[in-house]
Amino acid sequence: MTSPTTQSLVDGITAWMQCESPTSSPEGLARMVAVMQGYAASAGLQAAVTPLGAAVGPLLHISNRAAGDVRPGLLILGHSDTVHPIGTLQDNPCRIEGDRFYGPGGYDMKAGIYLALTALRDLAAAGATALPVDFVVVPDEETGSHASRAHIEAFARNARYTLVCEPARANGGKCVTARKGTGMLRLGVKGRAAHAGVQHEKGRSAIREMAHQILALEAMTDYARGVTVSVGTIEGGTATNTVPDRCRCVVDFRLPDLQAADELVDKMQALRPVGADMELDIDVEVNRPPMVKSEAVQALLARAQESARHAGFTLEDAPMTGGGSDANFTSALGVPTLDGLGADGDGAHTLHEHILVSTLEARLNFWRHLLAHLA
Question: Contact at 8 Å (CB) between 74 and 136?
């Protein structure tokens, strides 16, 4: 039997999960943001929406700052977008089975936003929190936060700390204090087309050249150092009877620190053709810098652990994770950042995504205590 508080949380999160908001649907994201804005405004919080363009949903900024209060404050980050397409509710409907609360986008990360915002609603009055709070919900985290990154960094420059509502790590509800940086390489190969049967010797196969390059790229993986390189997609050629003159691939890479990032980028930019008469087009970028666990982050973790003890559970931090988030951006600016403070559960980005119902009330109390006392 659930408590009234837990039932209220389940009901609220259910309503949010039923408002589907995939990154590919600006309209769905706008509806989701409107729901969040209304929930914040109804408690007296300031809630402003900023359009980020027709191809992406809007950004939501919620605050309890008093007029004229420009002190460096507490930045909370969340994202309204999910990876689940419209219609996923049919395959993964909102339901509770035992302690598991299922539904698309709940664990990653509507429940985390709901918990933090519910806590902030209870502390809506200026001065109710030790620091003024800026709660920023972006619409494009799942695709790299390209439209929202500048806004995130602008808020971070006036933040003493950042707390991120990404889901807690499975099997213990641990938070995240270090993330690898993420990068992308777009590699194009230009060869020479020829008839595959009549003039094969005159062709220069872009696909053959790409095979050499893929082997070189994958060999850059260094598990001992925490560097991974993965060729994710590849396309090339025009017809089976033509020596292909074009081939392209997109490569994902993950990095533990800035030195590794610089070294890997240099290696990728130094790629050269193996075959004769071939050209390479190399476009490489680190799109999320590494999130490094500093002494300031360790001190912030200790404060969060104190709030967790007050709420009745033990908060531990997970080992460095390979996944990136918006925490990477704030950390790179030197703002002490804790991530993975959202709902406890498992199955992000899958049809078995779920939240643990028994943890919801404690997580809410954790957020209340942390927001009220963190200074």
Answer: no
Question: Concatenated DSSP letters for 173-238?
Answer: TBEES-B-EEEEEEEEEE-B-EETTTSGGG-B-HHHHHHHHHHHHHTT-BTTTTBEEEEEEEEE-S
CA distances from 215 to 158, 231, 338 (A): 45, 10, 37
Contact call for residues 157 and 150 (beta carbons, < 8 A)? no
CA distance 251 to 286: 12
Q: Which long-range contacts (CB under 8 A, 24 or more apart) does 302-305 make?
A: 303/370, 303/373, 303/374, 304/175, 304/338, 304/341, 304/366, 304/370
This prediction has a pTM of 0.91
Amino acid at 86: I
- What's the one-letter identity of residue 87? G
For 17-41, the pLDDT digits (tens) are: 999 999 999 999 999 999 999 999 9
**Residue 133, strand partner residues:** 74
